[in-house]
From TrEMBL:
One of its GO terms (biological process) is translation. The keyword GTP-binding applies. GO terms for cellular component: cytoplasm. This is Ribosome biogenesis GTPase A. Keywords: Cytoplasm, GTP-binding, Nucleotide-binding. Required for a late step of 50S ribosomal subunit assembly. Has GTPase activity. GTP binds at residues 58-61, 130-135, 174. It comes from the Bacteria. It is found in: Cytoplasm. SUPFAM superfamilies: P-loop containing nucleoside triphosphate hydrolases. It comes from Sporomusa termitida. Residues 13-178 form the CP-type G domain.
Length: 288
């Protein structure tokens, strides 16, 4: 499975991020709590360099809490300031603002020493497409100012927004990276919704997802689709057909509509209907 999705607007956004970075006090890097490593853009990491950064794990409502705790510990162990977020409900957003302001404190103190007083903290929100950057901004503003959507690539331009008196935020378009060599990472980005659905091979992605579900979460599959664990087919293709039959996803002539079943499974997975998932595991990281 080879996925390459780096359209012109992302290249442009990457240039914009590079240009704006010198104005920024703190970077808020939004990661997807379900894939905290796979959702970290290596190009962004390089761009941000040593600039103060808060690593925020968003969509925490969709991730396995025990894994999330491990991940937070992992990032803190590497010296990062972290925050836990659910930008859809706004949970954790106030705490994030506190951390961002604290992170900027040193710089503001330096400015103050130079006689520049009362300047707002400038933060830039970075993250892959669909991770929740605009949702976070709306939560912080308390209005639906930034456009959001349940598909990647919603934000196109840059937008500065003022949160209270002390914080200015720059929303940015989601950016992936030009060379995605790790196909395991590509799978995780596709299944969690960071890559446009018509860019990747949905059939392969769903079959892989079904294999994972079959092996590790058979009980959840059975519960959601009213299957019996004893009768679960070992083969993912057969499992897909079985779910389609149970769901009554049939085309004319009584044939299972595989495309429709794939979309049902994907939508259920992304919405948390199959439970909480963390697809990146800290214990899989090689020591570095
Ligand atoms: N369950 C859940 N959904 C979230 C959370 N944060 C954002 N979403 C949803 O994720 C989708 C994407 O949110 P956006 O805020 O548009 O994401 P974005 O990062 O601005 O995306 P681009 O502009 O495309 O890069 C929307 O449907 C949000 O409602 C969260 O913490 N939990
Ligand atoms: Mg956006």
């Amino acid at each position: 499975m080879h996925i390459h999705w780096f359209p012109g607007h992302m290249a442009k956004a990457q240039r914009m991020i590079r240009e704006q970075l010198s104005l920024i006090d703190v970077v808020i890097e939004l990661l997807d709590a379900r894939i905290p490593v796979s959702s970290a853009n290596p190009v962004i990491t390089e761009l941000v360099g040593t600039k103060p950064r808060v690593v925020a794990l968003n969509k925490s409502d969709l991730a396995e809490p025990a894994r999330t705790a491990e991940w937070l510990q992992h990032f803190r162990g590497r010296g990062f300031t972290t925050a836990l977020l659910d930008a859809a409900s706004g949970k954790g957003s106030k705490e994030l603002v506190n951390r961002v302001e604290a992170e900027a404190g040193e710089k503001l103190a330096r400015l103050m020493a130079k006689g520049i007083k009362g300047r707002a903290v400038r933060a830039m929100i970075l993250g892959i497409p669909n991770v929740g950057k605009s949702s976070l901004i709306n939560r912080l503003l308390g209005t639906a100012t930034a456009k959001t959507g349940d598909k990647p690539g919603v934000t196109r331009g840059q937008q500065w927004l003022k949160v209270g008196k002390n914080l200015e935020l720059l929303d940015t378009p989601g950016v992936l990276w030009p060379r995605m060599d790790d196909q395991e990472v590509a799978f995780k980005l596709a299944v969690t919704g960071a890559i446009k659905d018509d860019i990747y091979d949905m059939e392969k992605v769903i079959l892989k997802l079904l294999c994972i579900l079959r092996e590790q979460y058979a009980n959840r599959l059975c519960e959601r689709y009213k299957l019996s664990e004893a009768g679960l087919p070992a083969e993912a293709g057969e499992l897909l057909t079985l779910i389609g039959t149970k769901r009554g996803c049939l085309k004319v002539g009584g044939i299972v509509d595989h495309d429709k079943v794939r979309r049902i499974i994907l939508t259920d997975f992304r919405a948390g209907k199959l439970g909480q998932f963390t697809l990146d595991h800290p214990d899989q990281l090689t020591a570095d």
